[in-house]
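re: ur question from earlier - yeah i can do the single chain one, its not a big deal. heres the input i used so u can compare w yours
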Amino acid sequence: MNYKYILPVFLFSGTVLFSQATSQTIVPNENLIAENIPAIPKSLSEKIKKYSESRSANFTAIHPNGKELIMVTRFASTNQLHQISQPMGNRKQLTFFDEPVNSADYEPVKGEYLVYSKDIGGNEFGQLFRLDLKTMQSTLLTDGGRSQNGGMVWKKDSGFYFTSTKRNGGDRDIYFMNPLKPEDTKPVLQLKGGGWRISDISDDGKKLLVGEYVSANESYLYLVNTETRKLEAITDRNEKQIVQGNARFSKNADEIWYVTDRGNEFNRLASLNLKTKKISYFTTDIPWEVSGYTLSKDKSKIAFETNESGLNKMYLMDANSKKYSEIKGLPVGLVNNFEFTNDGKSLFFSQSTYDSSADIYRLDLASNKIERWTDSEQGEMQKSDMSAPKLIEWKSFDGMKITGFYYPVSKKFTGKRPVLINIHGGPEGQSMASSLGSGNYYTNEMGVALIYPNVRGSSGFGKTYIASDNGFNRMNSVKDIGALLDWIGKQPELDKDRIMIMGGSYGGFMTLATAYEYADKIRCSVDIVGISDFNTFLKNTEEYRRDLRRVEYGDERDPAMSAFFTKIAPLNNTDKIQKPMFIIQGTNDPRVPVTEATQMRDKLKAQGNTVWYLEAKNEGHGFRKKENVDFQRLAVIRFMEEYLLK
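and the output i got, formated as tokens:
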């Protein structure tokens, strides 16, 4: 192995790391298993620090009085809950855990306590806790075991309904809990499958609106009578391939609001009469997806968001007249969440742009004035250090138009520039026009251009597009990357001979598949929590999500599908992988089990390939703790220096 400069190396015995490093090198922390990764100089850590210390702020709950917020941000290793009570005011940290806390609800009457969710080591078995805001004491409310608990909907002041997989680990049932008496939690309804969600409760507390998610292309709506505990279908279970979700009760007791792609390529905001089943559509004039909405407490106003080719716009609607207009004065960017205050006079939302992380804003609905509530630090990064995304498009093998976002390098670099292609997961995820954050180091310091493709199967481009990679069409999305490689070769500023592929989760599968399908066109690959064989993945992923994934990827119990999975598995095509590979994984990953990474690592090593390996014992589906994220970033940069830039 030829190094650009001489560094001390790490020696390995099994999974234990022995270092000959000096004080001038970075040593992995005790939770990291690092294999074949050369020493990382501290000078690199110091150089990247300018880019790695930014933070963001997202609100998760509004106090019943409308004057205080619970927000999520990070000041140490992980995201925690903070309280803020005035615009640009001081943030009071409320939780101080090693594990991140990313969501919470106020008790809805007086706001005297919070209910929040937290897991352990990224295992995604979220448990509910009550945080008393006077004593700051937390109390475990749920079983504390290997169950998922969440989706709370409050019944005024008496408690909340929620879903849990505690009965058998696979089915998501409905329960009712008084958080002041968690020992009295009662089961309400047993359900089959892991895709159930409570979306609303009627004003009298007698009915729940419940959604059943089957796939990104199919979902259904139901009513639950909380007294008889009976489930009643709102939508027809025999009508397949229609999205019907995010339902809310309207002011009219016989009507609900929801979003659906029925009769349309994109999700529209609609209403449905529960008695006549008549559907009315209200956003047909917007040729994009309505990606979310919220209803004011008095049900007179609606705020909704559209996803327009990777950028968000927000609209306000009068729920009575059904007239709406775009909220003006917002910077071009992304909206993360939004909610009315109880009095309906204000709308809080979080927004980010390419040159800023997410921050919290308040819209005064009377004056249309937008007030900033937080201003998150970007570290030492300046706007001039940040790359602005450009929307690009190319045609794939079958003529389908594929798009993505291209982040050019700083103008200080000349000549043809190397490229990092970063593929999102899902597969129904979507790369948006977001801030690169620490990724600006690649464009501004390394001179590496970034491309985030939205291959077929991505959301945001209509239901035909999102379904076009399902089942036996899986490898067509890999061909979209092949077409992108050809597109890069035609760009005068990009170097077709220096391309690295990187992706996480399903994007990890795409990375591995590209590594064997287009081995002659890439330099190296970074696989993060990726699927190496759909047969073993579906066998070992957690039970609550197995059937949901079968709808998307295919059912491995079908002999023809199993044979197809065997054929396309990166694990079975390692003989075609010619270039260096870096595999990154969390030990506790419930989605893509660690075995997907270790079996790929072991087979590549056995045949003599260059393989770097990094595993975090206290992480799951991706790294969340800053010390692990920082080391992963440094190791990836080191890998790029060695195999992409040389």
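Residues 1-21 have pLDDT under 50 and may be disordered. not sure if urs matches, ping me
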